[in-house]
Amino acid sequence: MSKTYDIGVLPGDGIGDEVVREALKVLDAVQSVYGFTTRREHLPYGADHFLATGETMPDAAFDRIRDMHAVIFGAIGDPRIEVGKLEFAIIAGMRHKLDLYVNLRPVKLYHESMCPLKGKKPEDIDILFLRENTEDAYAGIHGTTKKDTDYEISLQQMVYTARGTERIIRHAFELAQKRGPKPGKSKPQVTLIDKANAVRAQDIWTRIFAKVAKEYPGIDTDHAYIDAACMWMVKNPEWFDVAVTTNLFGDIITDLGAMLIGGMGIAASGNIHPGKVSMFEGIHGSAPKYKGQDKASPLATILSMALLLDHVGEAQAAKDLEATVAGLIQSGQIRSLKAGEHKCSELGTMVHDALLERARATR
Ligand code: IPM
Ligand code: MN
């Protein structure tokens, strides 16, 4: 009997609908090649649902998701809604309530034409970012007093727990070990990125990183403060292999990373709790101005689908899907990811067809 996976489908706002539709189109092709099936459950949450019902994302939805294998997610953000409301309830909601402590964000260049840096080639940019996904400034502890007076005070707490810090660092070492050394290197490397020289609370990262590193003598370690890391990312991206960082710094540096590989239209992510239901999304936002125009690139969501497949145990399908996207870029069939260069639906169909073609050729 073929395997069946329960997949939650949460398109969200803006371009979410169209990019998720294309990722599901690609999933249809993947299923037909690899012989598994999916039960897909639509999750209607987002701005329209909130405006119609007053509901952001109810506890019952999280309970449903806990019984699934994975969720494919589009984007959240709508100008009609108070800033941060739905982001906190739905994106942070899933990350926190499902304890998705690993935010996996690969920064991998498929073709030099996609990179704005002079002379950088695919072998120079292949970084696996691990962003801690449940703590730091995202813990939700903030407040304001004496609002709109000269004496206003606004606070937001950066929170680091020993357990939360250790589990993401450990996962980085585990992934580095699994990934093995980069070409030309004898060992894989994990870089810790923090700002412990100024944010002294991040000393906990320094200490736990050193402690965990001792257990992995086969892995090289490196360290960069976040400001310097941004500089090195542009100057010498080839220095990075696996990089682990705090939630807020990880948010920022992975947007920079996205721009090195073709832009927000191709940057994928997984919000993962190893061994449990996890959520997969492009790192881009909802881009409301492109909503419904068939202009946005679905490749970020399609590559997030590849991460989803890997997570549920379809590693070969995941690899082949990524290779299919890479192949379309390397062959020049996908010329650019600028909005409007290719239609959203066209890109989905290209990947769908190329995946089937690849399967026919190799089987
Ligand atoms: C991301 C996004 C979110 C974040 C926003 C929408 C809350 O920028 O997933 O990178 O800051 O984590
Ligand atoms: Mn972000």
Structural summary, described in words:
With 363 residues, the chain is an alpha/beta fold. The chain folds into two domains: 1-101 and 267-363, 3-Layer(aba) Sandwich (Isopropylmalate Dehydrogenase); 126-260, Isopropylmalate Dehydrogenase (3-Layer(aba) Sandwich). It is built from eleven helices and twelve strands. It has helices spanning 16-34, 47-53, 59-66, 85-97, 162-179, 203-214, 226-235, 247-260, 299-312, 315-330, 344-362; strands spanning 4-12, 37-42, 70-75, 102-108, 126-132, 142-145, 153-156, 189-194, 220-225, 242-245, 268-272, 278-282. The chain has a ten-stranded mixed sheet with strand order 2-1-3-12-11-4-5-10-8-9, sandwiched between helices. α1 packs across α9 (299-312) and α5 (162-179) crosses α6 (203-214). The longest helix has 19 residues, at 16-34. The chain binds 3-isopropylmalic acid and manganese (II) ion. Residues 251, 255, 283 line the site of manganese (II) ion (MN).
- Return the string of H and E elements: EHEHHEHEEEEHEHEHEHEEHHH
CATH domain fold name of the largest domain: Isopropylmalate Dehydrogenase
The chain-level structural class is: alpha/beta
Secondary structure tally, helices = 11
Tell me what portion of residues adopts beta-strand conformation: 15-25%
- Count of extended strands: 12
The number of domains: 2
Major beta sheet, strand line-up: 2-1-3-12-11-4-5-10-8-9
What's the N-to-C terminus distance?
21 Å
What is the overall pLDDT average? 97
Please compute the radius of gyration using only Cα atoms.
20 Å
In percent, how helical is the residue content?
A: 40-55%
Structural shape: globular
The CATH superfamily name of the largest domain is Isopropylmalate Dehydrogenase
